[in-house]
């Protein structure tokens, strides 16, 4: 499974890198920076939380069955 970030929609609320620190970091302005697109068993819960929590709907999961 992959997590996809639409950076054009990101307004820097910071929820993704707070809730999913294994998947996201932030740049100097507080915008999201993706550390990896790969979602593993170990990071799946973080990924789902980040997707549900992004107020701008920037995040989505691909290959989620
Ligand atoms: S939660 Fe959404 S809007 Fe906020 S920094 Fe992350 S991707 Fe951007």
TrEMBL record:
Keyword terms: Electron transport, Iron, Iron-sulfur, Metal-binding, Transport
Keyword field contains Transport: yes
Pfam families: Fer4_15
Annotated organism of origin: freshwater metagenome
Protein name, UniProt field: Unannotated protein
Transmembrane regions: none
Keyword Iron-sulfur: yes
PANTHER family with a match to the protein in the record: FERREDOXIN
Listed GO MF terms: iron-sulfur cluster binding; metal ion binding
